[in-house]
Each structure stands twice: as C-alpha cells, then as structure tokens.
C-alpha cells in the first residue's frame, strides 16, 4: 500500500463507483482511498485538493478518487471558467477561495437556467460541452472539516461547480443532463475510458492480492 500519496488517481468514466449514490460522512472519520493506507478525512480532503490542482480542475468529488462518500473539494479562481487555460501559471496563485464540503445539500434560489458555460469533468478528460442546464444561483448547506454546519450562497459559475460536484455524489455525469445524442457522439472516446477504468480496477485488485500474500 502506498503511504501519504501526493495525488490520487482519478477514476474514469465506466468505473462503477462513479455511478453509485455516495453515503453520508463524518468529519472525524478515517478513510481509505483504494490502493492507499487509511488517512484522517482532513488529509484525504487535502490530497484531493492537490489532485484537483494537478489535473487543472475546479472541483473534485470523493467518488472520483474511489471513495463513495458525500464530500467534495472545489475552488473559486480569479478567472473562473479559464482554469484549464494558461498552463504556465500555477493554479494556486489564482485561487480566491477553496472549499471542502461534507454532506452538501443544494437549494435553488434562482430557478432560471443557465446554459452558456462550457462544462467538462476530470473523469471524462478531453470532453467539453456547452448547454448543460444549471440553476443560476444556489444555497449550499454543508459540514466543514471541523464538523461545523455551514451555509453558503453561490451564483453563476461557482453555482455551476457546486451543482456539478453534488451530481457526482448522486452518480450523475454532466453528459447525463444533455440530449442522449451528445453522449453518442463521444461513444468511441467513452469506450476507451471504460477500458482504462476496467484495467485500473484489475490492477488495483491484483495489487491488493499481492499485498495480502506478503502479509501471509
């Protein structure tokens, strides 16, 4: 088992954990990302944040690293939707706020739908689409890493990020919110991701088997 990982592997489209409804989680829990030693939840959240920066993302949900729990990390950048551009500039230097949310629940506070932003997903790399309908403003109730209840309101792009990450906790991809023909257009790319996801799970199973054999 690998100790104190700098980043986690991100699970790809086709991995069953990404379609499962995640369970509630407590701030005091110790969690074991598959393939790694157990860590306190706070350390897992910090490593998820590092993983998100490494992948040049704006958010990352626990199921995307193999943990079916209701937690995600996210950031607000100075230039929001441009987080995937300007690769020469460190993302950390552009962060306005960072978030780690446990057991988030969303309440829509502006029912108007916005479809203008381009949306992507770290579990579906290389695929970006406009037209994903998201509420313009939401209120998020959640627990922070200290176990304190918090409430936050967000609009526009940040509201979209929160809705996208909460979808992950319910096993939903952004492609699911677009017409079926959009997914069909990416059939070849998605099939490739499914093969990689299956191979990763096979490798993980074999590594765990070897570990158990070493332990006798």
From TrEMBL:
Coiled-coil regions listed: 183-210
Residues making up the signal peptide according to the UniProt record: none
Reaction catalyzed: N-terminal N-formyl-L-methionyl-[peptide] + H2O = N-terminal L-methionyl-[peptide] + formate
Active site residues per record: 165
Cofactor: Fe(2+)
GO biological process, one term: translation
InterPro entries per the UniProt record, alphabetical: Peptide_deformylase, Peptide_deformylase_sf
Listed EC numbers: 3.5.1.88
Co-factor binding comment: Binds 1 Fe(2+) ion.
GO molecular function: metal ion binding; peptide deformylase activity
Keywords, alphabetical: Coiled coil, Hydrolase, Iron, Metal-binding, Protein biosynthesis
Binding site for Fe cation: 121, 164, 168
Function according to Swiss-Prot or TrEMBL: Removes the formyl group from the N-terminal Met of newly synthesized proteins. Requires at least a dipeptide for an efficient rate of reaction. N-terminal L-methionine is a prerequisite for activity but the enzyme has broad specificity at other positions.
Family assignment from sequence similarity: Belongs to the polypeptide deformylase family.
PANTHER family assigned to the protein according to its UniProt record, in alphabetical order: PEPTIDE DEFORMYLASE
Protein name: Peptide deformylase
Species in which this protein is naturally found: Deinococcus hopiensis KR-140
Lineage: Bacteria, Thermotogati, Deinococcota, Deinococci, Deinococcales
